[in-house]
Design a protein that fits this description.
Length: about 130
């Protein structure tokens, strides 16, 4: 069950990256070619979305709960708006790790964070009810 949920989370994050790339001018996904995936015929843009989605899935599944626990007082004081800041930090961290995401501008960061957070919240809701 964990691997199914994690695979769906990777796909949802890749889709959220695609949507953010299309909606916001400052949010762009830069194609990177991995030699191991190029040999099996996976397009470079698809590679970048999948690898970036994998990194975001790992960050949102394991790092985000730790950041939420550490910043719990700020989340309470801002009535939950600080969750957007946590998502922005995770997107910047994913960009630093993968290098496939380039975000310029505050609106692009906030919009991308909202879309990616919504995708992850939907996945959590989907698996919580089943």
């Amino acid at each position: 069950m964990f691997f199914l949920k994690f695979g769906i989370r990777i796909t949802a994050n890749a889709g959220a990256l695609w949507v953010a790339d299309r909606l916001f001018a400052g949010f762009s996904v830069i194609p990177h070619v991995l030699p191991s995936m190029a040999g099996i015929g996976v397009e470079s843009m698809a590679q970048t979305f999948l690898i970036s989605g994998l990194i975001l899935a790992i960050l949102f599944a394991f790092v985000r709960p730790i950041l939420k626990l550490l910043s719990f007082p700020l989340i309470i004081l801002t009535f939950g708006i600080f969750n957007i800041v946590i998502s922005i930090i995770l997107i910047a961290l994913a960009d630093w790790i993968a290098g496939g995401i380039e975000v310029t501008g505050f609106i692009a960061y906030v919009g991308g964070a909202l879309i990616i957070s919504a995708a992850n919240a939907f996945i959590e809701l989907l698996f919580r009810t089943s």
